[in-house]
Design brief:
heterodimer; A: mainly alpha; Arp2/3 complex 21 kDa subunit ARPC3; 7 helices; 76% helix; B: alpha+beta; mini-chromosome maintenance (MCM) complex, domain 2; 5-stranded antiparallel β-sheet; 3-stranded antiparallel β-sheet; 3 helices; 27% helix
Amino acid sequence: MDLLTVNEGKALSRLVILALLTAGGVGLFVFESLLPQPLPGGKIGLSQVATIFALYLFGLPSAFAVILMRIFITSLLMGTMLNPIFIFALAGGIVSTLTMGLVRRYVGAITILGNSVLGALTHNATQLVVAYVVYIHQSEIFWLLPYLILISLAAGLGIGLVTRLLLARYFVMISPHYSLEAEGNG
Amino acid sequence: MKRIFLQIWHIASPADRVIIIATFLLASGSFFFFRSGNDDRTEVWISVNNRLKYRVLLSQDRELSVQGQLGAVHIRIQDKKVWVTKSSCPHKICMRMGKISKAGQMIVCVPNQVVITLRSCHKNLNLDVITR
């Protein structure tokens, strides 16, 4: 058997990491669905850690791969395939990932924290607009907007912080000076 | 909690801080925007036999009468509440359904096929009444 070239090795490690991120996202999503949900739409979006991680590690196409696979797998697991919840998740996921990808690429001043808040905001706003246009034609649902924006702010900051710490940890881990003994002491 | 936020604030770039403050202002702004001036928008929709007959504002007091399947149904709108005062149906269930005041509630008179719903519309109705 031939040895892998450097590029093939990189592609392979990327594939493995994306698969792990998708699995982690699915796990976080299922875990979060077990938590009580006090407000409609008031989810934290824990699984977005995986998407943002992929976005900042590999870029927009990889983030799309992670979010789409995560949505399809979780909708199969939760039994929400092709029903309104699935449509909301798909629309919100696509728009927020696209927004975060473009911001990351073209607005360098915004770091992962602000970008995560923007992602949460666009995710919620998209879901609300889709709900209004497709299912509920009553404008009362926009009364939820203030609460959703506040929740987006808090959740976005939390998710951004977690992803930032995870990314820092990951970069330490793949650095050539990393060793398991050092981790044990840290 | 405060420590976590201070840590976040500390590591955020200036642009991030702008986003955080703007989002907070947006939340409070939209809170006041959606809290004010919604009371006058609720409309009373009265339909007979699945056809819309009246569409009037809840905030204007008035007395209406529609012709149902069995006879007249008298409806009163007063103090932002709607109720049926007199009906030609045998059981008078619609009269006993009481007064409704919130968007989404409804009064139904099945024998007369009269349905009264309260709806909140995002466009302001600048007319006194629409009849069909």
